[in-house]
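Take a minute with the sequence and fold tokens given here and flag any structure token that looks odd. Thanks in advance.
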Amino acid sequence: MTDTVSSKKRSEIMSRIKSSNTSFEEKFRKSLWAKGLRYRKNVKGMVGKPDLYFASKKLVVFLDSCFWHGCKKHCRMPNSNVEYWEKKIDRNKKRDRDVTKYYKKNGFKIIRIWEHDLKHNFFETVNNIVTAIKEKN
């Protein structure tokens, strides 16, 4: 199936997709902040640029969107340029695995949260993270 919009329009649409500070990220961060947790966000100098970094706990949190990180339940490949998108998502998944290995190897606790977890179980997910952060010695 071909794209229903022109290449120029598709490019315009794709250029508006945010890579950080998305609405679900902002809502999540505000909830943690309201519970008294302090963190750094989108830390450029760290491997994989974690969405949240709790330095005193040596803990990194990644908020993974279902599309860009290839969620098995919710990732729907576009109908056009399928080969490109399959390679792109596969590279993202490989990078995620490499980043996770890096942090584990270097003594960090790493938490990955799927977008759908925040959408469907927001408060439970937030409370689970708060508990995990407070338990970390």
Notes: Strands lie at 40-41, 52-54, 59-64, 109-114. The mean pLDDT is 85. Residues 52 and 89 are 22 Å apart (CA to CA). The first strand starts at residue 40 and ends at 41.
